[in-house]
Specification:
It contains two helices and four strands, in the order βαββαβ. The protein has 110 residues and is of the alpha/beta class. Strand 1, helix 1 and strand 2 form a beta-alpha-beta unit. The N and C termini lie close together (10 Å).
């Protein structure tokens, strides 16, 4: 069984910082695809933890209340990554790290 840690920040939810991405791309779409894959995964998942870095609440408000949210205020990639590793050491087991800018196919976790 997997313990999933999803690291996210709101930096790109307002305005498109990276013009190299397709127009349809958004962190909201990535989170939606992840949550859909989680719902279809059945008993493959032991826990899901979201590590939310910085300001903003667009993505934060999309996360269902049944999941654990760890709020941090690093506002840097390396600082956020270190805090996420701290969370992972608390969670233990088989960990699947997810970044907030990846799309999931419906059966990817299953």
């Amino acid at each position: 069984m997997l313990n999933i840690i999803y690291r996210l920040c709101e930096l790109e939810t307002v305005g498109n910082i990276r013009d190299i991405r397709p127009r349809w791309y958004s962190k909201q779409n990535c989170l939606k695809s992840f949550l859909y894959a989680v719902n279809l995964s059945g008993e493959q998942i032991n826990s899901v933890t979201f590590v939310h870095d910085g300001d903003g609440d667009i993505l934060l408000n999309m996360i269902p209340k049944q999941y654990r949210i760890v709020k941090i205020d690093e506002k840097s990639n390396i600082g956020s990554l270190r805090k996420t590793f701290d969370v992972a050491s608390e969670v233990g087991g088989n960990i699947y790290f997810v970044e907030d800018d990846y799309l999931h196919s419906p059966t990817s976790i299953k």
